[in-house]
Amino acid sequence: MPKITDLLKTKKITFSLELFPPKTDEGYAKLLNILPLLCCLKPDFISCTYGAGGGSRSKTLDIAQLIQENFHVPSLAHLTCVLHTKDEIKNIIEEMKNRGIENVLALRGDPPRDNPHWRPGKNNFQYSWELVAFIKENLPDHFSIGVAGFPEGHVLCPNRELDAQYLKNKVDNGADFVITQLFFNNQDYFDYAARLKKLGVTKRIIPGILPITDYPALVRFTNLCGASIPPKVHDIFKPIADNPEKTLKAGIDFCVQQCQELLQKGAPGLHFYALNKTHPVDVIINALNHA
Ligand SMILES: Cc1cc2nc3c(=O)[nH]c(=O)nc-3n(C[C@H](O)[C@H](O)[C@H](O)COP(=O)(O)OP(=O)(O)OC[C@H]3O[C@@H](n4cnc5c(N)ncnc54)[C@H](O)[C@@H]3O)c2cc1C
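Above: inputs. Below: predicted complex with flavin-adenine dinucleotide.
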């Protein structure tokens, strides 16, 4: 199974998908049913989140292993250091190695809703760069390591310049590639890539893409994660917010245009937040392939 760093050496553009571990047995069974369909889309890799939104942490490695063993698609296991001790992280990365997982997205994560005041102590990591450095130190050659990037700056970071410097710090500590937070204004992505280039970051900055399928949910989610919704998106989706079919169609059209512009102007790939569904990512990818 090629590591993501190997893929990046040979492929100018990658296309990848992101899933999350379902909370229920029913959700897990559904995911098992759609995995073959997602793999038919021939993604270069599939990532699986870790504990995002309170989802089960233990399922991430199961899903990452299953994707590789049953579907022969490289998997990227997300790992957040929030709430974990350094010893626990050591055990998890060793377990990843034993399970044949060679790609990890090293993240800080956020304190969960039921423990919002959790703060790191001396046996925890405070920032994701520490997790990157720890993985590099403990298993130097095993993993391709990705990190999260924020075209509009992380929600807690006072400005975009400083945020870019923190990103550079993750790369200086061993990160091999970057996957970004969702965004809807492509200029934010291009400006971010230019800021990082100016700082000497040469690793790939893969844009994270969310097809819009539910406008009220989008407004709620972007408020939490700090991504902004440009006026043009409000103008398209607000008037049709209570019409799922029209929203889906407009979401596909918007996403195809967004992706086409990103690729035309040099983005090195597309990472789709597929949210455990084949549709509408399948339609968007077909449209891009046949454009
Ligand atoms: C592609 C992608 C995938 C994600 N997957 C998951 C997931 O699977 N599970 C999940 O729970 N969450 C996930 N997240 C969300 C992520 O965990 C949160 O956005 C989190 O708040 C920040 O994580 P980070 O790794 O960027 O943290 P860090 O890189 O540690 O940054 C956190 C904050 O600290 C600041 N900072 C960084 N370095 C320093 C420093 N040296 N000094 C001072 N301040 C600093 C940053 O500016 C930022 O404000 C994902 C996000 C993205 C973009």
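The chain has eleven helices and eight strands.
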